[in-house]
Amino acid sequence: MGLQRFEGRLERMVDGTLSKAFRADLHPVEIGRRLTREMDLQRRVGVQGLIAPNVYTIQLSTADFDRFESFLDAMVRELEQAARDHARSEEYGFVGPVVVTVMENPELRRGRFDIESEVHEGPAGLPVASIVLPNGDRVTIGPDPIDIGRLPESAVVIDDPNASRRHAEIRRVGNDVVLTDLNSTNGTRVNGATVRQRRLADGDQVVIGTTVLRFENS
Fold it and tell me: How many CB atoms lie within 10 A of CB 81?
């Protein structure tokens, strides 16, 4: 399912002319398929279940690197999301944020590529968790609390007149991630319900004013 979403997003990202060029050459979807296979092959048993690598280095030939360069950043974001989607569907865990790096390797022939994977712990060795912003950016939840609101010094700044200056806070409590409303004017909602305090679960939607954030633990 994750790869199907990945392929669909790539089709929308890559224009028709470039899509035709991929028919006879390396296609980004092939990289996505190899990446998820690497996850399956390198997963291991951890204290709380199966752990998958979270850091991937992809080496491309010079010809392929040059072809992908114009949309390389977007492709990396999609590969990282494909890894998260696959981990969620297979019930794999990560011990740190998912990071994909694409490098040029002049020794590789056109159409060939290599993937190396590693397990890297996140901040302070805590289980991975993040808040996904409306633009797709991620804020990793480390040991320090994350304050959300309109104040410019907030960790997550919400440019929304319906949000309070200090609207809510997210902090770790043991292995849990807890959201607390800071007596905001319009309240904080999680999955449609107004909450004062809530332990967040993977995929929860947090609404601050009219701004929608998503919590992910993968």
Answer: 20
The sign of the CA dihedral 102, 107, 110, 113 is: negative
CA-based Rg of the chain, rounded to a whole angstrom?
19
| The one-letter amino acid at 135 | N
Place of tokens 């999609």: 78
DSSP per-residue string spanning 124-160: GGPPP-EEE-TTS-EEE--SS-EEEESSTTSSEE---
pLDDT per residue as tens digits for the range 60-71: 999 999 989 888
pLDDT at res. 7: 62
The first and second tokens of residue 157, run together, are 């700044």
Q: Quick check: helix, strand or coil at residue 101?
A: strand
pTM above 0.85, yes or no: no
d(CA 6, CA 36): 11
For 14-49, how does the pLDDT look when each residue is reduced to its tens digit (9 = 90+)?
554 445 445 557 888 889 999 999 999 999 998 778
User: For the CA atoms of 14, 102, 79, 18, what is the dihedral angle to 10 degrees?
Assistant: 10
What is the DSSP secondary-structure string of 151-193?
STTSSEE---TTS-SS-EEEEEETTEEEEEE-S-SS-EEETTE
